[in-house]
Design goal:
heterodimer, A: about 525 residues, mainly alpha, 23 helices, about 0% strand, B: disordered N terminus
Chain lengths: ~525, ~725
């Protein structure tokens, strides 16, 4: 094939070949030339070839010039004595097949432009093949979908080697269609199962890709009447599984359960748990199947437990999950890091929900209040501003716990009966103790914390303080708020004149630091 | 036909009763609920309107109607009470609710006003008694009616009395007399009375005439007397003399005396004060400021409770009127210089000490009246001790002229070489070009002279210029601190200048400081958002934080600059992981600054304890079995968890204790292992020094409880002698 160098020349040459193939069957061998360019090193040329293939096989599919039915091997047909048309069709179908294989390989191409083009071409083939199926329907109205081709696409997307997140975000727009979503779920289930069993050590990139794809699948909340199909059908039959949301849910559940069955890396655990309550649990056909996963995650400890809490809450609240020792574990989750983790707001929102019941025993609430106030001794001001009203709310809800803030003849601080090491709130003896920590925090350096801690000095006002606006408070917001607060018109000034940078000799800075 | 009709009617059913049934769309499919009025003769052109009846529905409607009308009437049968809603405009729909409210409010006001004004004596309304103004009655100046007689007012003539009250007797007695005088037919009673009236009128007229005559006579007499008087004047000089005494001739001597007497005397000015008095005054001032600081520290302004006056007199009108203290300042001179400073410092502290001016500080808070007495004494003692400890501290002078005594001599040559006037820099670059390349002394002199030349009292725009200068100096200090190596000595001296400028312009100074802090926080916030943690900022931010503490009273309960700075430091200690020895130095410096902030107010800092514990943890070789959980910026394991562990015991032997260098914070380069170990030793000992008393090696890592107790209760720092092992 003689042609000008460069992509422009390639484009023109390919255009000529394309027209030739489409014009007459005699020129069919030019297909090999086009397919050869697909192997090109040059990105531009490859792209041109992909475009040409897309046009070529798109036209052939529409014309029905590809063999329909179970594909016989190339050699047997060529050798056989069937008609030339049939031979041509079988031959062309084989070319189509090899083209699809090549395109699937191109999904792992280093250039994103090529990848994207290959994906969109494959999806175009899926659409056309769905409209002009290459299989014979078993009976009238039989649902046909190019499963093989589509599975190959999904397999290409879930690459164990490269990070396909960009390509997956491109693929996400196809997921809006009901049929694509359904078949993606099925294909993903199969691919995940195969890859996880196939490798001894499944690479992290695969899990990330899989999670990106899985979390991109979002089912509609209700069965909507107008379903959008990617492959155009003349009439939708009610007998097709793909039409029913119930079937979608089943597939969704299978997919997630299949995914979560495997041993996932820790970071992925967190990601799954973050979206669990919001985008996974509501769509499962049987949410209670997640119980095992969530309880195990809850037992892991640390941030993962915090995150599992939300999913568990949904199960307890809406699906009647009975969880023994729930509060004991919740109590165990309270450690100093709880004020510093990213999911602080989420955790305290849930903790507030769990502790809002008025049927909790007083010892339990007292243990929580005591534990929280003990932890408050290590908390930064923005967390204190949230946790102090939280503790006060607990005292408001449970008047039996108010002994904690009124113990005139209590023991000395050295002899605090509370046992911070005890894991069981019932044995922590919190109810015999007092909340001296709050009194300590009344001397906190930040004025608002000090005020919040001083609330217990008066009788607690009856309506609870809503902690919702305080949950997301960051230090920067506290800082800005302090800046904006203009109390007096004039700023008080230091009246002792300064001696220099480090201050006077009895200042700590001057004691411990020198300028040289 | 007959069969088809009902069917048609029924079909029509759902549409037809749209009006009758009130739009009920549901047809009644039950044929038993429908009554068909069959027509005997179908008539063409007649509309069959009542072909289908729904007895159940219509019965229900009728019953409902009866319960709404008849039943109501029945219930209200024997009741005469009526509830009338007299709220204004309650049922008028053409008024908006706001209008209604306005109108109602107006009516209510009107009503109240009327009621009140009955007893409101101060109103302009005139009170009357029998049509006479009570005010006039009270004045007791009865206006004499010119018609009425003055002499006989109140006494009635005998005749009149007789006529009115005497009954028939008087008249009867008189009539025979009159009958005797002239024979007349007896007059009727009416005639008698008329006569009486005429008589009295006549009498009155006569009296008037008489009085007029008397008046005339008096006037005449007066005139005569005047005529005579002129004659008399010539004869009687005594009377003339007496007149003259009233208007004495101006005498020169008298005038002198008067003038001297009335002349404004020289006001006694404040005498020059002795040294002791000045010192005492200064001490008083400091005491007063200290009292104000304590009050702010306890956040008593914050509480917002109106401070109760100590004593309420029975005569107190409680109108809040208090005689202000005369706060004009007398112009006074000290050492030949006008003492503007007094006024300035007072202005500066006016805002905070406005309320308590002239009050005894010990009387201020009734709640803990026992405390401030002793406390203040202590403070003042400390104050005076401090004074002793600093003999070289200069008395306050005019801010422009201020300088510290050290470096005074060294600056003399610089003084002479540099030009004497500087224009105030308009931009930071200008200031930098003025200062760069000069020695420390020269830089100080330049800054000083800029202030002197642009003192606000010299020209109008100078205030703004110096306000800007503060910001530029701050920026310059930041640049110096980020330099490698940081020029800390210049900063050390410039801080004094900053302090002076801040005393002059508190507002703009606080604005510049807050903007600097905001920038630092913003940067850190960005990093925290992105990665969940942030790196320790450069030395400049630390220096800014330290400067904030020296310029503003760090002990205030709430302060517009100090409180944000505290939050900023808290962020530094919680969000910045310690990755290197530099970070340790920075962290420890922040800890020191933090503790200096609260050294007077003695407040509780959770982050600080966490941080110090974390540092000690990093310095411990054998970490197992301590059972202490580390808090956020520190991790139990990881490559930085043994940062401060001394790797070679021999190095410990060669180590000597001295202060940590602040310059380490900006870079520790090219250290040998021994040096690194020494640095670790320094840092450990520094940490221990900062740690409060009870944090010694044995209990060091776990007793958070002990800490908190300590911070709540007694509060003292003491240097640990033991070296961390």
């Amino acid at each position: 094939m003689e042609r000008d160098p460069g992509p422009e020349g390639a484009r023109r040459a390919l255009g000529r070949l394309l027209e030739a193939v489409l014009a007459s069957r005699g020129q069919a061998n030019a297909v090999f030339d086009i397919l050869a360019v697909l192997q090109s090193e040059d990105h531009e040329e490859t792209q041109e070839a992909v475009r040409a293939c897309s046009r070529l096989f798109g036209a052939l599919l529409e014309r029905g010039e590809l063999f329909v039915g179970r594909l016989p091997s190339e050699g047997s047909v060529m050798a056989g004595s069937q008609g030339a048309t049939r031979k041509y069709k079988v031959w062309m179908r084989h070319r189509y097949h090899s083209c699809c294989n090549r395109l699937q390989e191109l999904l792992a191409h280093p250039s994103f432009g090529v990848k994207e083009l290959a994906l969109s071409t494959l999806m175009k083939f899926v659409q056309l093949e769905g409209a002009h199926p290459l299989e014979k329907p078993k009976w009238d109205g039989y649902y046909l979908f190019p499963r093989q081709l589509f599975k190959a696409v999904v397999e290409g997307l879930l690459s164990p080697e490269d990070d396909c997140s960009l390509l997956l975000s491109r693929f996400q727009e196809y997921l809006e269609h009901d049929d694509i979503r359904y078949h993606t779920m099925q294909a993903a289930t199969a691919v995940v199962g195969r890859v996880a069993d196939g490798y001894p050590e499944v690479p992290l990139t695969f899990w990330n890709n899989a999670f990106t794809l899985l979390s991109a699948v979002s089912l509609p909340r209700q069965e909507c009447s107008s379903s959008s199909f990617y492959v155009k059908h003349v009439e939708l039959s009610r007998t097709w599984k793909v039409v029913h949301l119930k079937e979608h849910r089943k597939a969704f559940q299978l997919m997630w359960l299949g995914f979560l069955r495997h041993k996932l890396p820790l970071s992925l655990y967190k990601k799954v748990l973050v979206v669990m309550h919001d985008s996974i649990l509501p769509h499962l056909a049987q949410p209670s199947l997640m119980i095992d996963f969530l309880t195990r995650a809850y037992d892991v400890g640390g941030a993962i437990s915090l995150l599992a809490l939300n999913g568990l809450f949904v199960l307890i609240h809406q699906h009647n999950l009975e969880y023994p020792d729930f509060y004991r574990k919740l109590y165990g989750l309270l450690d100093p890091s709880v004020f510093h983790v990213k999911y602080r707001a989420r955790f305290f929102h849930l903790a507030d929900l769990f502790l809002s019941s008025s049927h909790l025993p007083a010892y339990l609430v007292a243990a929580f209040a005591k534990r929280l106030s003990r932890l408050a001794l290590t908390a930064p001001p923005e967390a204190l501003l949230m946790v102090l009203p939280f503790i006060c709310n607990l005292l408001r809800r449970h008047p039996a716990c108010r002994v904690l803030v009124h113990r005139p003849l209590g023991p000395e601080l050295d002899a605090d009966p509370y046992d911070p090491e005890e894991e069981d709130p019932a044995k922590s003896r919190a109810l015999e103790s007092s909340l001296w920590e709050l009194q300590a925090l009344q001397r906190h350096y930040h004025p608002e914390v000090s005020q919040a801690a001083s609330v217990i000095n008066q009788a607690l006002s009856m309506p609870e303080v809503s902690i919702a606006p305080l949950l997301d408070l960051t230090a920067f917001e506290v800082f800005e708020r302090d800046l904006k607060k203009k109390g007096q018109e004039s700023v008080p000034l230091e009246f002792i004149p300064t001696q220099g940078l480090l201050g006077r000799q009895d200042d700590l800075c001057a004691q411990h630091f020198t300028l040289s | 036909m007959g069969k088809a009709r009902p069917a048609a009617a029924r079909r029509k059913g759902p549409g037809a009763p749209a009006g009758a049934q009130g739009g009920r769309a549901r047809p009644s499919p039950n044929p038993f609920e429908v009554k068909v009025n069959r027509q005997k003769f179908p008539v063409l052109g007649r509309k069959a309107r009542h072909a289908v009846g729904q007895p159940g529905v219509s019965r229900a409607r009728a019953v409902q109607k009866r319960t709404q009308t008849l039943l109501k009437e029945y219930k209200e049968r024997d009741k005469s009470n009526v509830f009338t809603d007299k709220r204004f405009g309650e049922y008028s729909s053409n008024m908006s609710s706001e209008e209604k409210m306005m109108k109602r409010f107006a009516l209510e006001q009107q009503r109240q006003h009327e009621k009140k004004s009955i007893y409101n004596l101060n109103e302009d309304e005139e009170l009357t008694h029998y049509g006479q103004s009570l005010a006039d009655v009270e004045k007791h100046n009865d206006i004499v009616d010119s018609d009425s007689d003055t002499e006989e007012r109140g006494t009635l003539s005998a005749e009149l009395t007789a006529a009115h009250f005497g009954g028939g007797g008087g008249l009867l007695r008189k009539t025979p007399l009159q009958q005797g005088g002239e024979e007349e037919k007896p007059r009727s009673r009416k005639e008698l009375i008329e006569e009486l009236i005429a008589k009295s009128k006549q009498e009155k007229r006569a009296r008037q005439a008489q009085r007029e005559g008397a008046l005339e006579l008096t006037e005449k007499l007066d005139q005569d007397w005047k005529e005579i008087q002129t004659l008399l004047t010539h004869r009687t000089p005594q009377s003339e003399n007496r007149d003259k005494k009233e208007h004495p001739k101006p005498d020169v001597y008298d005038m002198m005396v008067r003038e001297l007497g009335l002349e404004r005397k020289a006001q006694p000015s404040n005498r020059m004060k002795t040294e002791e008095e000045l010192a005492k005054e200064e001490q008083d001032r400091l005491q007063k400021l200290e009292a104000a600081r304590l009050r702010r520290m306890r956040g008593e302004d914050e509480a917002g409770d109106a401070r109760k006056p100590k004593h309420l007199s029975a005569d107190d009108l409680n109108d809040g009127f208090v005689l202000d203290k005369d706060n004009r300042h007398l112009l006074s001179y000290t050492d030949g210089k006008m003492s503007i400073k007094e006024e300035q410092s007072r202005e500066a502290s006016d805002g905070e000490s406005k309320e308590e001016q002239g009050e005894d500080p010990s009387e201020e808070d009734p709640e803990d009246s026992s405390d401030p007495e002793g406390h203040l004494d202590l403070e003042s003692d400390a104050e005076s001790e401090e004074d002793c400890g600093w003999p070289d501290r200069e008395p306050r002078q005019a801010p422009g002229k201020r300088m510290t005594s050290n470096g005074h001599k060294a600056r003399e040559p610089a003084r002479t070489e540099l030009p004497y006037t500087f224009a105030a820099p308009e931009s930071y670059e200008e200031l930098k070009s003025l200062l760069s390349g000069k020695t420390m002394e020269e830089q100080l002199v330049v800054v000083e002279r800029i202030q002197t030349c642009n003192h606000p009292s010299l020209a109008v725009g100078n205030k703004a210029k110096l306000e800007k200068l503060f910001g530029f100096l701050l920026e310059y200090i930041g640049d110096l601190a980020t330099d490698d190596p940081p020029d800390l000595r210049v900063i050390d001296k410039l801080v004094v200048q900053l302090y002076n400028l801040c005393q002059m312009f508190p507002e703009s100074a606080s604005n510049s400081i807050t903007s600097v802090l905001r920038d630092a926080m913003h940067e850190m916030e960005g990093a925290v958002e992105a990665r969940g943690r942030a790196a320790f900022p450069g030395l400049d931010v630390l220096v800014y934080l330290k400067i904030t503490g020296t310029l503003f009273p760090a002990s205030d309960f709430r302060h517009p600059v100090v409180t944000p700075a505290l939050v900023c430091m808290s962020q530094l200690l919680t969000k910045c992981p310690v990755l290197s020895l530099q970070d340790v130095v920075k962290g420890l410096f922040v800890c020191c600054v933090f503790l200096d902030y609260v050294s007077l107010s003695r407040r509780f800092i959770p982050e600080l304890i966490n941080f110090l514990l974390g540092i000690l943890y990093v310095a411990t070789p054998n970490k197992h079995g301590h059972g202490y959980t580390l808090v956020h910026p520190f991790r139990t394991s990881g490559k930085n968890s043994e940062l401060l562990v001394v790797s070679d015991q021999e190095d410990t032997a060669t180590w000597q204790r001295r202060g940590l260098s602040l310059a380490w914070a900006s870079g520790l380069k090219g250290q040998t292992k021994t040096e690194a170990n020494h640095t670790s030793d320094h840092l450990c000992s520094g940490t221990q020094g900062i740690c409060p008393t009870r944090c010694h090696a044995g209990r060091g890592l776990q007793p958070l409880l002990g800490f908190s107790e300590l911070w709540v209760g007694d509060f003292s720092f003491c240097q640990e002698d033991g070296h961390w092992q």
